[in-house]
Design a protein that fits this description.
heterodimer, A: about 775 residues, mainly beta, Ferric Hydroxamate Uptake Protein, Chain A, domain 1, Maltoporin, Chain A, 3 domains, 22-stranded antiparallel beta barrel, 4 helices, B: 11-stranded mixed beta sheet, 4-stranded antiparallel beta sheet
């Protein structure tokens, strides 16, 4: 109780005994003042409880009289409050982070209170300590270790959730959708773990307040900024360096947070980029900047402004002169992509039971290719210029209003509406030519621009029906207006939870999801050339329904066992027509795609240990996922590319002391499905086919799409962390290795028929890769 | 700083490695591969074979391979397939007759397909030819008129050939006096296709690519013609392939423009061949074309392509097309 602060108590009504009274307030971190999400507030006498919302606010209505409240969440010391509650009371709590593992006694965390199936949350420290490629801690890669979530190809950060594709995941940073969540062609995600305070991941019972994607929701909260003191962190890794600085501005009411990350591969390779050489090595870099400022006007009103900007760029730049020195040339070409997001949020405690949040968002994703060749005649100073620019992307501007109504201890109602204006640029090409003699300057713009509107309203109610039975009822109604056509969707979301015993729960969820955006992609590598496109008159919205049933068993409050089964059906999925090539991205996309259906079913087992010196989890997934398209595979059902029947992810972290820890992860997956011809047939397409096809004597014959299972994938990663407190800061060394036993995992497999003898060949990407990182925290 | 250098070198040393896999695909499927070829005014030709294992270097030889041909359900011929997999029938196909093909060979189940020979295109005429220069380049334009029958589904293929000029002949001033040409026509590489006063046009869009009609051809209505159906034109460097819905019963004027880098002062003969193709042939050709695109791709991550099949119990498809040819002479003025 030493760190428990009863911050504000004020009277509103004098109520007689046994009347309903409300205790409400906000819960913050004692050290930095950040609001804590998902803290369980539980009265052990009435056995009623609630959870803090995304802004740390809670409200619990109880009978007046003695209460014994317990505030608990992962990573913090639990706090208790015993009072005689006679009137409406505001209690704001500062919770102290658990210094030792023994202090972290969580009798009921929010995970155990969730009604829905398929909800995942974990400590950010677990993400920061998970050993990953090149030592760059990565939220998405850590999530990939959990059951029901598969990675794509080696090293990539795309999520394939319960048979879905990466575009079916709604990824939001401070309420703003992120359209491209990867750097370096998918090797790293755009989310800098140092800038994240927490996240929620839904793969089963998706709440009604989220819509627009079929398979999952990842809602990430950026740190608010320390309002107690200036703190920071700087680190240098193998490929990138990071910094964070945060602190109060003129008192505790205002705080800021700024973080940055940049790779320095381009600086390392700079000596190899000799100017004037035809074979200059392209320079590559990416960066992220996160910034947030929040201001509390009073105890009821708070404003947040957050910005994220991240970009990748690669290109070459060549300067030189002709051999006779008559002309100089300046050639540049390259491409880049990136996100810019901004959100402004206004929190307001309207009444002791009513919490409002108004959000305005702006999101921009852009991909561009450029080429510029400039040649100058040194004598006449005449300049010839050829330039080519290609842009594609998506801009969103919108807003939403969410209201949380803590109606009673048995009802928590959330409602709100959202509107978004999308502007799609499937491809704009600008060409400029300026010649010596003709001096003609052509500026051509090709491509269609789509402006579409999306809106939805929702309502949801968490109902505690009895001590053992809880229900979640949600409904989302959305409308999407495109090309003078309106699409409507009614999406019910239902969940039921039954506590068989204090430790054993049965849960079930059902939901309908709808998605108005398509990601046109024809590769497995998460290339930025993938295009986000809206539904059209011809291409209808994607839709899915999912049902899941799960059991949860809490063993001594130390281990949480979760077993879930699900069945999901999807329709109006799109795929490129057969033979689509990697960079075939020109207009008329509707004519290049096929429309079909998908099914997925599976069983997921998760065993978690989140307390004590040794923490971690074991996740096992057994699943089957198929697709069916009328014009692919002769209309027959075929396995999905990532139809891995067995996936295992194990993550273990052990803390020897405050100074040293080790973590290791092991993943196993049965191989991916690829299409590999098993036979060849002679050709004959007529004498009039005069070009190359009469020179082809045979073609590879495919008996079925995705007929070949690549060899199994498995990998062990290990990382060590050593911390030491110095006079002014704490320094940290992180060492580790990716793919410790140097497994040659398949990146792709192909039939090489050109070389003799013909053979099936596998290409592997990453051998054993050591990493290190040096950080200082002040 | 030593450890930094070591780690950086390790990082730079990341390379993909390749290894061979021992994969047992088993025996190839026991299915006949059947390609009956039906063209106007020519005998029916049949090509037949069997699949081979993907890593095999030899194709199986078919024994006792025969094909029974029916005309509107009545057997009219039995064709024996030779060891090279080819058989000739004496039947000359008639448009709109339904021809059936039942193939058998020892050790294989029978394979069946059917085809109709499309009618030749009603109207094909070369309107004129012209020569013009642009940026010091010479071009020859061959303008032709095509009328699509609205009542039938027609898939088209357009090819332009030039009679190969024999330099040893004696030129006498006007083309009827020409002594000789080479005996073969050569097809022209990269003809540029325009349609009725286009706003946007392309010389070509890369060999082996499908040109979507959208944004690329204007049919004279004052705005870009937009196809709501899956219309796409295939251009393989020499020929254009059109689906039915591209023309959709219209009478079209098409300009084929040829870049002429070596203008001679002698007359040239140009031939335009317009073929109406059966749907199976068009779909089969498209799958071959997509296959070709895929095989030419730089990276193996391109989607694989299934070759179209219209043979029940086997592979392959009937190739049925009717051609009409018009020709024109052109000489430098």
């Amino acid at each position: 109780m030493r760190y428990f602060l009863l911050a504000i108590v004020f009277n509103t009504l004098c109520l007689s005994a046994q009347k309903s009274v409300t205790i409400s307030g906000t819960i913050t971190d004692f050290q930095n003042g950040e609001h804590l999400v998902g803290v369980v507030v539980y009265d052990s006498i009435s056995k009623k409880g609630t959870i803090t919302n995304n802004y740390g606010f809670y409200s619990l209505t109880l009978r007046s009289g003695s209460i014994n409240l317990l505030y608990s969440t992962l990573g913090y010391q639990s706090e208790g409050l015993k009072i005689n509650l006679t009137r409406d009371t505001v209690v704001c709590v500062n919770m102290k982070p658990a210094v030792t593992e023994l202090q972290e006694v969580v009798v009921a965390d929010n995970k155990r209170q969730t009604i829905q199936t398929g909800v995942i949350s974990m400590k950010i420290s677990q993400i920061q300590n998970t050993p990953v490629l090149m030592g760059e801690a990565d939220l998405l890669k850590t999530i990939q270790l959990l059951p029901g979530i598969k990675s794509g190809t080696e090293g990539t950060s795309g999520l394939y959730v319960r048979g879905g594709s990466p575009d079916q995941n709604l990824i939001m940073l401070d309420g703003v959708p992120i359209y491209n969540s990867s750097h370096a062609f998918g090797l790293f995600s755009v989310f800098n773990p140092d800038a994240i305070s927490g996240f929620s991941f839904y793969k089963g019972g998706i709440p009604a307040r989220y819509t627009g994607r079929l398979s999952s929701v990842l809602d990430i909260n950026m740190k608010e900024g320390n309002n107690k003191e200036i703190t920071g962190k700087a680190s240098l890794g193998l490929i990138a360096s990071n910094f964070i600085i945060e602190g109060p501005i003129g008192g505790e009411n205002t705080s800021f947070f700024v973080s940055g990350r940049r790779t320095f591969i381009d600086l390392i390779t700079k000596p190899f980029q000799s100017e004037g050489a035809e074979s200059a090595i392209p320079a590559y870099f990416f960066y992220d900047i996160n910034a947030k400022i929040n201001h509390s006007f009073n105890s009821r009103n708070r404003l947040y402004v957050s910005i994220y900007s991240g970009n990748d760029h690669t290109g070459t730049s060549i300067h030189g002169s002709s051999q006779d020195n008559e002309r100089t040339f300046d050639d540049k070409d390259g491409f880049g992509w990136g996100n810019l997001t901004t959100s402004v949020r206004w929190n307001s405690v309207l009444t002791k039971k009513l919490f409002s949040n108004i959000t305005l968002v702006y999101s921009k994703y852009r991909f561009s290719i450029y080429r510029k060749n400039e040649e100058t005649n040194n004598a006449s100073k005449e300049v010839s210029l050829n330039s080519y620019n290609y842009f594609s992307g998506i801009n969103d501007i919108g807003g939403r209003w969410d209201v949380d109504w803590f109606a009673s201890a048995n009802h928590t109602i959330k409602t709100g509406f959202n509107f978004t204006f999308h502007s799609f640029n499937p491809g704009i090409t600008l060409v400029k030519n300026k010649g010596y003699e003709q001096n003609n300057d052509i500026d051509t713009t090709l491509g269609n621009r789509n402006f579409v509107r999306e809106a939805f309203i929702y309502a949801e109610d968490e109902i505690k029906m009895t001590d053992k039975i809880s229900a979640y009822l949600g409904l989302n109604f959305s409308v999407f207006s495109v090309e003078q056509k309106n699409y409507y969707s009614v999406q019910p979301r239902l969940s039921l939870s039954y506590a068989v015993t204090q430790n054993l729960k049965i849960k079930s969820s059902y939901g309908i999801m709808s998605q108005y955006l398509h990601l046109l992609t024809n590769s497995t590598t998460g290339l930025p050339t993938d295009l986000w496109l809206p539904v059209t008159q011809k291409i209808k919205p994607q839709a899915a329904w999912q049902i899941s049933l799960g059991f949860e068993y809490d063993l001594d409050n130390q281990y949480l066992f979760s077993l879930e089964g699900y069945y999901k059906k999807m329709k109006n999925l799109i795929e490129y027509k057969e033979g689509a090539s990697l960079f075939q991205i020109k207009g008329g996309w509707e004519d290049k795609v096929e429309i079909g259906e998908g099914k997925s079913k599976g069983i997921e087992l998760l065993v978690q240990k989140e307390h004590g010196k040794t923490t971690g989890w074991i996740g096992i997934t057994i699943s089957k996922t198929t697709r069916q398209f009328d014009n692919i595979n002769n209309g027959l059902e075929f396995p999905y590319r990532y139809d891995r029947r067995l996936d295992i992810g194990i993550m273990v972290m052990h803390k020897f002391s405050e100074k040293a820890s080790v973590s290791c992860s092991w993943v196993f997956g049965t191989g991916n499905r690829i299409t590999l011809a098993t036979e060849k047939i002679r050709t004959s397409i007529g004498d009039s086919a005069v070009f190359i096809y009469n020179t082809i004597t045979y073609v590879k014959n495919i008996t079925s799409i995705n007929n070949f299972l690549t060899p199994s994938y498995h990998r062990l990663d290990i990382g060590f962390d050593f911390n030491k407190k110095k006079k002014h800061w704490t320094r940290s060394w992180s060492f580790g290795a990716y793919n410790v036993y140097n497994r040659k995992n398949p990146f792709y497999v192909y039939a090489d028929l050109l070389n003799k003898p013909p053979a099936i060949k596998q290409v592997s990407l990453f051998p054993i890769l050591p990493y290190f990182k040096y950080s200082i925290v002040f | 700083m030593k450890q930094y250098r070591v780690i950086i070198l390790l990082f730079l040393g990341i390379l993909g490695c390749t290894k061979e896999l021992n994969v047992d695909f088993g025996e190839p499927s026991k299915k006949l591969v059947l390609y009956p070829i039906l063209t106007n005014n020519k005998d029916i030709i049949i090509k037949m074979s069997g699949p081979a294992g993907i890593l095999s270097t030899n194709f199986p030889v078919l024994n006792n391979a025969t094909v029974i041909i029916t005309d509107n359900g009545v057997p009219v011929d039995t064709v024996k397939i030779d060891l090279k997999g080819k058989g000739n029938s004496k039947i000359i196909p008639i448009p709109d007759h339904e021809y059936g093909f039942k193939a058998t060979a020892t050790g294989y189940p029978e394979a069946i397909c059917a085809a109709q020979l499309p009618k030749p295109v009603e109207t094909l005429s070369i309107v004129d030819t012209a020569h013009f220069s642009f940026y010091n380049m010479n071009y020859i334009r061959v303008r032709l008129r095509i009328k699509d029958d609205p009542n039938t589904i027609n898939y088209y293929k357009v090819t332009i050939y030039r009679k190969k000029f024999v330099t040893t002949h004696i030129y006498r001033g006007i083309y009827p006096n020409i002594i000789s040409y080479d005996t073969t026509y050569i097809s022209i590489w990269k003809p540029r296709l325009l349609a009725n006063n286009p706003v946007i046009d392309f010389f070509y869009n890369g060999v082996g690519s499908f040109l979507l009609a959208r944004n690329e051809i204007n049919f004279g209505d004052g705005s870009h013609f937009t196809f709501e159906l899956g219309s796409e034109t295939y251009f393989d460097g020499i020929e254009y392939y059109f689906p039915d819905d591209l023309f959709n019963g219209k009478e079209m004027i098409l300009d084929l423009i040829v870049e002429e880098t070596n203008i001679s002062s002698f007359p040239e003969k140009y031939m335009i061949e317009l073929s109406s193709m059966s749907e199976d042939y068009y779909r089969g050709f498209k799958s071959y074309a997509r296959y070709g695109t895929k095989e030419q791709a730089d990276l193996p991550v391109v989607e694989e392509v299934s070759i179209y099949s219209a043979v029940n119990g086997g592979y392959g498809f009937p190739i049925a097309y009717s051609s009409v040819i018009d020709s024109s002479y052109w000489m430098q003025q």
